[in-house]
Amino acid sequence: MRLLLVEDDDMIAETVLGAMRRSGYAIDWAEDGRAAELSLGNGVYDLVLLDLGLPKKDGIDVLNAYRKSGGAAPVIILTARDAVDDRIRGLDAGADDYLIKPFDLDELAARVRALLRRRTGQKQPIYAHGELTLDPAAHEVTKCGEVLPLVPREFALLQALIEEPARVFTKAELEEKLYGWGEEVGSNTIEVHVHSLRRKIGAEQVVTVRGVGYRLKRC
Ligand code: CA
Question: If both were cysteines, with which of 7, 74, 140, 179 could 13 make a disulfide (CB 3.0 to 4.6 Å apart)?
């Protein structure tokens, strides 16, 4: 999962970036409204965390423009403005949820998980596919009930696949989901992760679609 944080306060940004990375998400950081618009133009984000009081362009204007251009990722507003009017404007502009600063990082993580589930039509908190289950909150994967020791990138890779089990992902799409800006991605990085994931969950679980990419085994 790849997130975008739009926040001009360094301290809050560092805290949120650290927490989200520890939760296994790739996350990029835009420090003002213009940088946010440029980043959102890439169309690679699964979810956006958006401050409202921003330099260069207000968060509400960023959100309005994003929705008008067809941007569909869920948006959580993070704002110190606890006035009801701002929250209403944010929700009416297309936000899906909001948190008032200072907020609890565990609550933020739970709201992120809830919106990511809703985005793919998943009602249950735990993903199940054949013999596999993936629990984003506990960061746990099981096969036939047995817990498998996945490292964070393997977990993130499996999460991307299990969220849309019928979809074939290209390597480029998986790179976008697993890596943020400034992270080195070698030309065979995704193959390496697929290889190590297969060793842990079973080679047959991840199918190579020749010339296209990867998907989960049908079940
Ligand atoms: Ca701000």
Answer: 7
CATH hierarchy code of domain 125-216 = 1.10.10.10
Beta bridge partners of 100: 79
Per-residue pLDDT of the chain in tens (219 residues, 90 and over written 9): 999 999 999 999 999 999 999 888 999 999 999 999 999 999 899 999 999 999 999 999 999 999 999 999 999 999 876 668 888 899 999 999 999 999 999 999 999 999 999 988 888 899 999 999 999 999 999 999 999 999 999 999 999 999 999 999 999 999 999 999 888 888 899 999 999 999 999 999 999 999 999 999 998
Domain ranges of the chain: 2-122, 125-216
Q: Does domain 2-122 sit in CATH 3.30.70.1110?
A: no
Beta-carbon contacts of 51 under 8 Å, excluding residues fewer than 6 positions away, are 6, 7, 8, 9, 12, 59, 77, 78, 79
Expressed in angstroms and rounded, the spacing between residue 4 Cα and the centre of ligand 1 is 15
- Ligand 1: distance of its center to the CA of 51 in Å? 6
How far, in Å, from the CA of 13 to the mean position of ligand 1?
A: 10
CB 123 within 8 A of CB 116: no
Query: Ligand 1 centre from 97 Cα, in Å?
Result: 17
Give the predicted TM-score (pTM) of the model: 0.90
Return the amino acid letter for 1. Answer: M
Measured in angstroms, how far is the CA atom of residue 54 from the centroid of ligand 1?
5
* φ/ψ (deg, to 5) at 176: -65, -35
